Amino acid sequence: MLVNGRTAGKAALGLRVVSKTGRSAPSGWRCRLTRAGAAAETLLWRRQVIADLEAAGVLTLDARPEDLTAALVSEYLAIKARRLL
Fold first, then answer.
1. pLDDT digit string (tens) for 14-44?
2. CA triplet 73, 77, 82: central angle to 5 degrees?
3. What is the SS3 assignment for 20?
4. Which residue range forms the structural domain that includes residue 26?
5. CA 23, CA 57: separation in Å to the nearest integer?
6. Is residue 69 a part of any domain in this protein?
7. The pTM is what?
8. What percent of the chain has pLDDT over 70?
9. Who's near 24: CB < 8 A, 6+ residues apart?
10. 5 or 65, higher pLDDT
């Protein structure tokens, strides 16, 4: 899918969505492309914020809930006990 000749992520800017044949894409595609573009932009922004915080010396923890293992939680508590938070 192309959006005015550009990548699909531009759909979040409200540009008209067209297929490779030049016809308007079905409305369901517009919604999905808009959501995908917004999600991609949010993830990039989030990664940049974390990188900026780490560059400033801030300890960061970026993990999905299912990745929070006992060892990771123990490390967090050890950092907290040293009053580094």
1. 555 555 666 665 567 788 888 899 999 999 9
2. 150
3. coil
4. 2-58
5. 51
6. no
7. 0.53
8. 68
9. 16, 17, 18
10. 65
User: Within a domain: residue 7?
Assistant: yes
Distance of alpha carbon 2 from alpha carbon 17, whole angstroms: 7
How many domains are there within the chain? 1
Query: Can you tell me the distance from the alpha carbon of 43 to that of 37, in angstroms, rounded to the nearest whole number?
Result: 10
> Which residues touch 73 (CB under 8 Å, ≥6 apart)?
none
Q: Is 20 exposed, middle or buried (0-12, 13-18, 19+ CB in 10 A)?
A: exposed
Does 83 fall in a domain?
A: no
Asked if residue 67 belongs to a domain, the reply is: no
Distance between CA 64 and CA 62 in Å, rounded? 7
Asked whether the beta carbons of 53 and 85 are under 8 A apart, the reply is no
